[in-house]
Amino acid sequence: MTTEIAIMNKSAIALAADSAVTFSKPDGQPKIYNTVNKLFALSKYQPVGIMVFDSAELIGLPWETIIKIYRSKLGSKKFDSLETYAKDFLGFLSDNSQLFPKEVQADYFRELIQSFFLQITKAALDECERIVKVQKSIPDDKVVAVLETHIQSWCEELSNCKDIECVPQEISSGLEKQYSAIIEKQIESVFGNARISEQSKNLLRTAAANLFSKDYFPETGNSGIVVAGFGEAEPFPSLYSYVVQGVLGNKLKFKPSKKASISYSMGASITPFAQDEMVHTFMQGVDPSYEHHAVNLVNEIVKKYYFDPIEKAVNMKEEDKKELLKNLRDIQATAIKELRDKLGSHKRTDYVDPVLDAVAALPKDELAAMAESLVSLTILKRRVSMTAETVGGAIDVALISKGDGLIWIKRKHYFDKNLNAQFLANYYRKDEEYRS
């Protein structure tokens, strides 16, 4: 996992990222390394940086390798807007069979299908276990019926997702036919022993093709990228982040996530990524889960002291109960909305706005120090809790300004710079050789 942050004012944007990455060993146990680079210069010559989080690879190719290949290709080229940098980078990941050969794309699609099918079987098995706890046993035909019910519901939910804009219609319409052998093999591998109907198999075949063409991004296996800095024609910094899943048919599947920008009227912005609960606590004065718990507690109290006594009342007609309960639910919904609105207004007035006002006036060095401190806060929270330390290691900090470009405030290296003078000497020379 990761914790990253971008803090902007009119002068500059500070980026900070931890160094932890989690791998799953064959036995299922996690292995955490605290030496991974997640923050990079997207251009050696222009004021643009990039951060990556969640998966450290894109269908098997490390993001660090991808970014540095693109950086060499970009050279000293510049764009008027930061969004154009982001789009150019995403376009570089499409139509690039050298980076992502057909067999690698097929392996990615196989894993995507298998993961979806296994989620269906897990949901069906969980329901069967609940039935067994109550009824002590479950017949085989009932197991198949439960499985087919879940196949139908999962496939229908996927089908109802919007088409993803980045995948052309001609690619999405041909996926089922192009990868039919892979799809059939996965259906047999995951569902072969269950003897499901042909109708369910047809649903699975259609769903397999929809996995890449629909706006469906599972909780695991995706990457996040954040492009931040200045376009050539932009006086103020901005950022664009995207969720990236994979490449198939030489097209990248991605969708926009967060974006933020500074303007004459907007003087500051704080945007966290990945594990962000401590940043929200700092900004809002309370953990986001605490507010959620407080609202649920109010609902439970109302139910206990109002709804339950009315439902148990013996001296009321049923229609009177229903009418009274309906009115109370309307009042409850209005009260909860008012509670949320007032809590939100209090957080904004007493916590968020004062912090943003201070950030708007911070000099560059303090901007970088704040970014590092907020990442450190999340690392400290994980270190003193009884959960796995999925964030940690050295914190990389970069500051991007219009005039100075990307300046490293803190940067770890896997080598001793004093022993590798040739690396620094060749840093820019390689771009000249690439363009010649």
If you had to describe this structure to a student in words, what would you say it looks like?
This protein is an alpha+beta fold. Helix content is 51%, strand content 19%. It contains 14 helices and 14 strands. It has a 5-stranded antiparallel beta sheet. The protein has a 5-stranded antiparallel beta sheet with strand order 5-6-9-10-11. The longest helix is centred in the C-terminal third of the chain and has 43 residues, at 318-360. The chain is globular, with a radius of gyration of 26 Å.
Q: Which characteristics define this entry?
A:
5-stranded antiparallel beta sheet; 14 helices
Write the layout of secondary structure elements.
Elements: E1 3-9, E2 12-17, E3 21-24, E4 30-33, E5 39-41, E6 48-54, E7 57-58, E8 61-62, H1 63-74, H2 82-93, H3 102-135, H4 140-159, H5 169-172, H6 175-178, H7 180-191, H8 198-213, E9 223-229, E10 238-248, E11 251-261, E12 268-274, H9 277-284, H10 288-312, H11 318-360, H12 364-383, E13 396-401, E14 405-410, H13 421-426, H14 429-435
Antiparallel strand pairs: 1-2, 1-12, 2-13, 3-4, 5-6, 6-9, 7-8, 9-10, 10-11, 13-14
Helix pairs in contact: 3-4, 3-7, 3-8, 4-8, 7-8, 9-12, 10-11
